[in-house]
Design goal:
The protein has helices at residues 3-6, 19-23, 53-66, 83-87, 131-143, 163-171, 187-200, 232-239, 251-259, 271-278, and strands spanning 38-45, 71-75, 94-95, 102-103, 105-106, 112-114, 150-156, 176-181, 205-210, 215-216, 223-224, 243-246. With 280 residues, the chain is α/β, with parallel strands linked by helices.
Length: 280
């Protein structure tokens, strides 16, 4: 009898390496906990560090919350978490009364978030874990956390194309990614890495956000290109993805993040990005 005739169509209980298993793209997806609900998942990624993924994640979550959506943030940057600091969250992660599930912290405007920093006694304690443990933590944050009626979940990812982005793309039902970059010359290479990984994993690309795009003179309003002329338009055209936003360098944004009040930043420069996410 052939493999097809013996097939029960339950890949989870079968060890055969048949064509059906190879075509089953949902076999790695982690299930949400019972009672949890997340409608859309948006990854925030970059090919390198230091370009502002956490800032974009925070500001996008705030803007979507301002549109009366229920919003969550999963901080998947396990070894370099910064999301709780931006929102002024310092308490430990909670658990449900039965002790089975983690409970996200809730910010002052109602954004639910979870981060590895919420598991540490001191926020400066290092997370010295190997790749499989880090990947396991990301899965736990998704599948063993009580996410209550989330419309949009933003996943702040570490830089590059390593264990965690791979885990997120395979284990979470990602509806699209926002690629964050900066104006320097190596922007094409940075974006190219993220674009090519997304294509290999069949993840839709929502668009590109350029951080630290320009400095606006407080006296005359002139836009000053601190890092040189931006290449982002050419790169967006090269890869056929929309440019969603240019985030200016503003001292008040940095001050708000440091003070834990990122929710009160005026981020009107993200209007187009908000519209793109709402169209998913």
């Amino acid at each position: 009898m052939s493999e097809a005739e013996n097939c029960s169509h339950d890949c989870g209980s079968c060890s055969a390496n048949c064509s059906s298993r190879k075509e089953d793209k949902t076999s790695f997806l982690e299930k949400l906990s019972e009672g949890s609900s997340v409608k859309k998942v948006i990854g925030v990624v970059s090919g390198k560090g230091g370009v502002g993924k956490s800032l974009v994640t925070s500001l996008m979550a705030c803007r979507m919350r301002a549109e009366n959506h229920r919003v969550g943030i999963l901080d998947a940057d396990i070894t370099g978490p910064s999301i709780p600091k931006a929102f002024g969250i310092s308490e430990f992660v909670g658990v449900t009364p039965d002790g089975k599930l983690l409970v996200p912290a809730v910010t002052s405007t109602g954004i639910e978030l979870i981060s590895s920093n919420m598991l540490l006694e001191h926020e400066t304690d290092p997370v010295i874990w190997r790749g499989p443990v880090i990947a396991g933590a990301v899965k736990q944050f998704w599948g063993e956390t009580y996410w209550k009626d989330i419309d949009y979940m933003f996943v702040d990812m570490p830089p590059g194309t390593g264990d965690v982005p791979l885990t997120v793309f395979q284990s979470l039902p990602v509806d699209g990614i926002i690629i964050v970059t900066s104006p320097q010359d190596l922007v094409s290479m940075i974006v190219g890495k993220a674009v090519n990984m997304a294509k290999k994993m069949n993840i839709p690309i929502i668009g590109l956000v350029e951080n630290m795009s320009y400095l606006e003179c407080p006296d005359c309003g002139k836009k000053i290109s601190v890092f040189g002329e931006s290449k982002v338009d050419a790169v967006a055209e090269e890869y056929g993805i929309p440019l969603l936003a240019r985030i200016p360098i503003r001292p008040e944004i940095a001050s708000a993040v440091d003070a834990g009040t990122v929710e009160y930043v005026n981020a009107d420069f993200l209007d187009k990005a908000v519209e793109a996410v709402e169209k998913l």
